[in-house]
Design a protein that fits this description.
single chain, about 300 residues, alpha/beta, Rossmann fold, 2 domains, 6-stranded parallel β-sheet, about 30% helix, binds ribose-5-phosphate
């Protein structure tokens, strides 16, 4: 019924329709597509046909710049259609890395992004954001309710369901990765360690493993993000040199391209599984039930 107002609805963007529809199915509420029109000068216009009291906007915000502005347009449109509450489910949240000014003159992009998006929404739900120095969503996103879901929980549930060799060693490829490696390994009753990573450039990474008993063991590398893939490749090389029997990987946010996927194969890393926080060929873990639980 065109123009009717619903109690609750999920609104999805074209590139993430499968994931947004999955959330609507778990929530047992209607799904509506956000229509996007691109003008010849590449401006975009968002159009939403049906309103809901509780509007749930769904969009992973990788390759973020245009998407952020379109999400803001969608939030404005659902508010104009009389939404009482607007939740943005952004399975991948961008601009979390730059949470401090590392070099004089740089922009504090995390704070800028938070200031831009927060006035338009009431709640923000994401998975495994980069919260390494700013510790809570509330401290980053002023005036809105924020929820950062664990990526370790769904990934561990996936491996629990499939079974995993008991002597598998879980490796977080840098010291920060203990946030995910530890809860993941503990949920599965596996040993875990973190590696030491030195990043000398976007693609220039050296990973070392110190004093770990790897000989003959399967290794599972787990990380929050794979982007260029160089971190996982560096870690896999170090593990294989130390005698690991095999190397596989699990990741929350699969940002990597086909070239990186080929490089994983060449480096002997298989399989690589990811959550569907970003639509990707490696997706194996559906996050919709976890978002539905957070939405209550
Ligand atoms: C770093 O803090 C992250 O946890 C990942 O290790 C990193 O973003 C992976 O990047 P790449 O795949 O480009 O090495």
């Amino acid at each position: 019924m065109s123009g009717a107002k619903h109690h609750k609805a999920v609104y999805g963007f074209p590139e993430c329709e499968t994931q947004a529809r999955a959330l609507a199915a778990v929530l047992r509420c209607p799904y509506f597509s956000v229509a996007l029109h691109t003008f010849p000068d590449r401006e975009t216009l968002v159009r939403i046909e049906q309103g809901a009291d509780e509007a749930i906007l769904f969009r992973p915000l990788h390759h973020p710049n245009a998407k952020i502005f379109e999400v803001i347009q969608a939030a404005s449109a659902v508010r104009d259609l009389a939404a009482d509450r607007i939740t943005l489910v952004a399975p991948y949240l961008p601009y979390m890395r730059q949470d401090k000014v590392f070099r004089k003159g740089e922009a504090l992009s995390q704070k800028i992004f938070a200031g831009v998006i927060s006035p338009w929404i009431d709640r923000l739900i994401t998975v495994e954001p980069h919260l390494h120095r700013s510790h809570t969503m509330e401290s980053i996103f002023p005036g809105i309710k924020g929820s950062a879901l664990s990526g370790a929980v769904p990934l561990a549930a996936y491996f629990k369901g499939r079974g995993i060799e008991k002597n598998t060693l879980v490796i977080g490829p840098d010291e920060e990765a203990f946030h995910i490696a530890r809860p993941f390994a503990e949920a599965l009753g596996l040993d875990w360690i973190t590696a030491l990573k030195k990043r000398r450039g976007d693609r220039d990474i050296k990973v070392t493993l110190e004093g770990s008993a790897l000989t003959g063991r399967p290794v599972l590398i787990i990380d929050d993000v794979i982007s260029t893939g160089m971190t996982v490749i560096g870690c896999a090389r170090a593990a294989l040199e130390a005698g690991a029997a095999s190397v596989s990987a699990a990741v929350v946010h699969a940002l990597y391209d086909e070239q990186a996927a080929k490089a994983f194969k060449a480096a002997g890393i298989a399989p690589v599984v990811s959550t569907d926080s970003i639509p990707h060929p490696s997706n194996a873990v559906v996050l919709a039930p976890y978002f539905a639980e957070a939405l209550g």
